[in-house]
Amino acid sequence: FKKVKKSLTRTREVFGGLVDLVRGRGKVDKQFLTELEKRLYLADVGGAAVATIVDRVKQSFIDKEITGEVEEFVKKQLREMLSAPTQGVQFAGSGPTVIMIAGVNGSGKTTSIAKLANNLKLQGKKVCVAACDTFRAAAVEQLTIWSERIGVEIVKNQQGSDPAAVAHDACERVKAREFDVLIVDTAGRLHTQTHLMRELEKIHRIVQKQIPGAPHEVLLVLDATTGQNAIAQAEEFSKSVKCTGIILTKLDGTAKGGVIFGIKSKLGLPVKYIGVGEGLDDLDIFNPDEYVAALFE
Ligand code: GDP
């Protein structure tokens, strides 16, 4: 909890206005509701979510004194806007688990793959990563450095080679050598958006064909510092492959942690992990209760 609380320091500052308001004096009147709306917006909670919360507070508390109940109610509403807690990755019943990772360049995709690989290795899993972002030389290099540091296997090819071929080879290898988990990196940008989406679909089809039930997860990496833009990006990606969850990165550096409240309602996807720093152990399984509690500390 301490780590989450620390990483939300800047977001907590923007939530301060909201916390002060619900802990204030007076009545829940029109002015209070207008203020509530404004402060939720300022905290990046986002359109529909804001309207719902304000409306519910109005229905339950209009003309009543502001008491601790109002605060508890608002916290409860915020908790309900977050996805239910998950166990992180959903593993295959038998055979290797395949996790595809998507996201635009700079979102923290490579770092998140390294953190996840490390995390799963520490759980005793035999992990392999596939460097399918062959469009960007630096991505393959970075992933190679990380995999050596962590001590996990990497399947790669020269820059510019066919990412689908790399995905194919990686599937063959994890089957032959009985790996528990294959994490597949994918391109974050190509010549065109259509090209990028087609490539994702192709990699998806190949792992599907090679390994029964795969991919077991398609996790989309979103950068929290981009605020509501992160949600727009996720909507684009969801058009080509069905994502199963979100890794929300860089929460430690941003005041825009409120963006998390729009993700479930807008995308219908659970946030599975949050990135709270640049280090290997700075990836946490998302816990909605802790998140809201940390904002109101
Ligand atoms: P990619 O282009 O999406 O693969 O992005 P990278 O993984 O290379 O990350 C881009 C930058 O963001 C790097 O400097 C990372 O150290 C940094 N980064 C990634 N995740 C986090 C995070 O959770 N918190 C912070 N503070 N920085 C992060």
From TrEMBL:
This is Signal recognition particle receptor FtsY. GO terms for molecular function: GTP binding; GTPase activity; signal recognition particle binding. It is found in: Cell membrane; Cytoplasm. Its EC number is 3.6.5.4. It is a peripheral membrane protein. Keywords: Cell membrane, Cytoplasm, GTP-binding, Hydrolase, Membrane, Nucleotide-binding, Receptor. Residues 270-283 form the SRP54-type proteins GTP-binding domain. Belongs to the GTP-binding SRP family. FtsY subfamily. InterPro entries: AAA+_ATPase, P-loop_NTPase, Signal_recog_particl_SRP54_hlx, SR_rcpt_FtsY, SRP/SRP_N, SRP54_GTPase_dom, SRP54_N_sf. The keyword GTP-binding applies. Part of the signal recognition particle protein translocation system, which is composed of SRP and FtsY. It catalyses: GTP + H2O = GDP + phosphate + H(+). Its main location: membrane. The keyword GTP-binding applies. One of its GO terms (cellular component) is plasma membrane. One of its GO terms (biological process) is SRP-dependent cotranslational protein targeting to membrane. GTP binds at residues 103-110, 185-189, 249-252. Involved in targeting and insertion of nascent membrane proteins into the cytoplasmic membrane. Acts as a receptor for the complex formed by the signal recognition particle (SRP) and the ribosome-nascent chain (RNC). It holds the Pfam family SRP54_N. CDD domains: FtsY.
